[in-house]
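Morning, I've got a small favour to ask if you have a moment. The fold is given in discrete form, as structure tokens running alongside the sequence. I'd be grateful if you could look everything over and explain what you see. No rush at all, and the record is pasted right below.
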Amino acid sequence: MDFLDYLENKAHCSVNTRNQRLAALKSFSSYVIRTNPEYIDNFNQILNIKVKRTETKIVPYLTTEGIKLLLSAPNIHSHNGLRDTAILSLMYESGCRVQELIDLKVEDLFFQNTDVVRLHGKGNKIRLVPISRNCSNIIKKYINISSKNLESNNFLFTNHSKKQFTRAGIAYLLNKYEKIARKQDPTLFTVKVHPHVLRHSKAMHLLENGVNLIYIRDFLGHESVTTTEIYAKCNPELKRKYLSQNSKLIEEDLVEYNRNEKDELLKWLKHNIL
């Protein structure tokens, strides 16, 4: 407990960091109990330490109007502008992580009846994600004008040095186009836009359109639907929609009492309660 207090009060670590360290200590404690049961009383005390509650963070995301404005910011008539449009479009359409994007190779795209991108996620897990026809057309156009430098085993997106993008490079591009879009309509950019915001935005928009959380979990590559549930908890528009629907049901079920029924109810209340 002194160690956990030190992390928070002297090392100025966040509550999340404190809880992560505690999780590591609990994992070690479980191991010791299995291998050296004579210490069970000591290490059970560690297992009984409760994690500290943290405030639920608001998930930052853009509206569909904000996404449209952001995607229109690059100049698609230049090679780099078309590349950047393809990057932003694919990040939003597939809901991919930054590392998944920069690891993409040309051979990971499948243009068929349903256009699909193959993403290599955490733990070397692979998932196939469908993309819209508009997004695939942008990518096809980018591949066509870059065909001299692209082979099937090449990275799909490269920087000005013809090398694989870095996470910082993608963040720089996004920041560049956010500034352009923000100047046109600052009301659509009330959150700080970073690469993961596009992933959050896609999840929120799927949820708002009635897509089941199970499908969104698989789409995003989450291990558990519990991780995906944060989008349902943090979406005010979704809450408003469901509250509105339920209020209509309540109004439809309201039954007006006639005068005799009201008098009988008042008599019963006076007799049994007053």
